[in-house]
Amino acid sequence: MELYMPRTVIISGASKGIGKETARVFAAAGDQVVVFDVDREKGEGFCREEKAAGRKVDFSAVDITNTENVRSAVEKAANQYGGVDVLVNCAGILDLHSFSETTEEVWDRVMGINLKGAFLLSQAVLPFMSKNKSGRIINIASSAGRTGGVKTGVSYSVSKAGIIGLTKTLARMAAPDKVTVNCIAPGTTNTDMARQFSSEDTEAILRQVPLHSLVEPEDIARAVYFLASDSAKMITGICLDINGGIYMG
């Protein structure tokens, strides 16, 4: 049996929700995890918890919509830990505005965090992965990007559809350098983000889910870990749907 080789894993938006659970899974496996987040208090608190458990998790305050901030943070992590092996683009915000109520400011903010951030981070890490002829990029999309959403706003659904498109474009482009790029489209997940829905809206969503249950963060985290593993070395350009059956593409 081969010895496990720890990897350097950057995860954006890992101070809570899916990102936090994903960071736990990688750290528990022995990987060096670097949390990129704007929430310093929650991010550093999470890192302290993990370090107390003997795991390697560090925090970096990063505004993923700022090009220079992203490039500087990625370069620092790559230099400190000897490269970047895995990037998980998990940072995102929910928007519930209707089409007519969506302002340009709302649109730009959601697109900036949900789509531009993933683009900038991928652009920053790819040279390090390409140089090593190895790497994994996993993007977190949403079933809203597949279906248009049940109760989500237009900017959210479009940003997540953009993540799926970004994934496929990057997968084709990065393949010659043995870098795989995939995404996961979760259904409504049991996180603080989903709790922005009213109880009536949540029930309306669940009525459309054949398994009639919310997705749990660990469901997504385990799938991310699989896509980053050697077992998934021939998987690239896919969008893995984990949604209880609300979308069966």
UniProtKB/TrEMBL annotation:
InterPro entries membership: KR_dom, NAD(P)-bd_dom_sf, Sc_DH/Rdtase_CS, SDR, SDR_fam
Residue ranges of the TM segments: none
One Pfam family from the record: adh_short_C2
Database matches in PROSITE patterns: ADH_SHORT (PS00061)
Any single GO BP term: monocarboxylic acid metabolic process
Family label: Belongs to the short-chain dehydrogenases/reductases (SDR) family.
Protein name: Ketoreductase domain-containing protein
